[in-house]
Specification:
5-stranded mixed β-sheet, about 40% helix, 15 strands, alpha+beta, about 300 residues, 3 domains
């Protein structure tokens, strides 16, 4: 029915946030998108959004149409998936967001194997420095470090992870031994720079679990906004790095990096797959998260006991 098409179109429009973005996403002209919205408004007899070419702001009627329409479309998807389950085939769009390093190393290969199993799924992996919120911009699943702050999101742990303080053996051989995390303030540290600050804040907790959790400001002559670059600089012996277990476990196993201050540990930084909390979660979303959780078991070894 035309009404279902209109609902789906308006949902895409609201997610994109502007007429221009919707036109690009759908491969239509700007005038065609604008005309389609005006036709829907004329049929309903209400204004759904105030708009310019760059920004779209929903009216109260638009918010209601979007919210109730999303429920209707979700029920339609649920019905079709229930019928399709008889064939044990997954289908439909699936958009995943992850950070560059983890996304390239682990999410992309697992998406590849998932797609090979389920060729009916139309998948997209978008890598960004800062996370996109599931439910917005068409994102179905976000891969996040740490628990999500948004209570509207459901989180499932896919990897236990923590930060590891480490350096190359040749660097360690020539340095004065560290007695505590506070010593790092005067040492050349390899900083992952994710903002304009001249320093990074490294957090630790004592291995015995006595509750002491120092946060130390560190800096150094070398920095990067890319984690792989920081690991490479550490391997070359340029200083001390605080990197994730998933990123350096292989170098620790071969001895190319050694862990420092074993009596202290970098804070936990577990990975979660997050998705919007709703009554019906599409089967393809649940299946991909299952695939992620199962696949990570063979890709990253378990965290060593403290």
């Amino acid at each position: 029915m035309a009404q279902f098409d209109d609902l789906a179109f308006f949902q895409r429009l609201a997610q994109a946030g502007s007429l221009t973005a919707t036109a690009l996403e759908l491969g239509l002209s700007l005038s065609a998108v604008s005309k389609r919205l005006m036709q829907i408004e004329a049929r309903l007899g209400v204004t759904l959004a105030s708009r310019t070419t760059r920004r779209l702001t929903l009216t109260p009627e638009g918010e209601r149409y979007l919210g109730r329409g999303a429920v209707i479309l979700e029920e339609l998807v649920e019905l079709e998936e229930a019928l399709g389950a008889q064939r044990s085939e997954l289908s439909g769009p699936l958009k995943i967001n992850a950070t560059f390093g983890f996304g390239r190393r682990h999410v992309a290969p697992l998406l590849s194997s998932f797609r090979a199993r389920h060729p009916g799924v139309e998948a997209s992996l978008e890598l960004t420095n800062f996370p996109l919120t599931p439910g917005e911009q068409g994102v179905d699943i976000g891969i996040r470090v740490g628990e999500p702050p948004d209570s509207r999101l459901v989180a499932r742990q896919i990897l236990a992870n923590r930060r590891v303080l480490c350096a190359a053996p040749r660097y360690v051989a020539g340095m004065v031994p560290l007695a505590s995390p506070w010593d790092l303030a005067a040492r050349p540290c390899l900083v992952l720079r994710e903002n304009d600050s001249d320093f990074a804040l490294w957090r630790f907790r004592r291995g015995g679990g006595d509750g002491e959790e120092p946060a130390v400001k560190v800096s150094g002559p070398l920095a990067s906004n890319d984690g792989e670059v920081v690991v490479g600089l550490a391997l070359d012996g340029h200083g001390i790095a605080l990197r994730s277990w998933w990123d350096v476990h292989a170098h620790l196993a071969t001895g190319r990096l050694v862990e420092l201050l074993p009596g202290w540990q970098g804070v936990r930084a577990d990975f979660h797959a997050v998705y919007p909390q709703r009554r019906h979660v599409p089967a393809r979303v649940r299946a991909f998260i299952d695939h992620l959780a199962e696949g990570m078991v063979g890709r990253v070894p378990p965290l060593p006991e403290p």
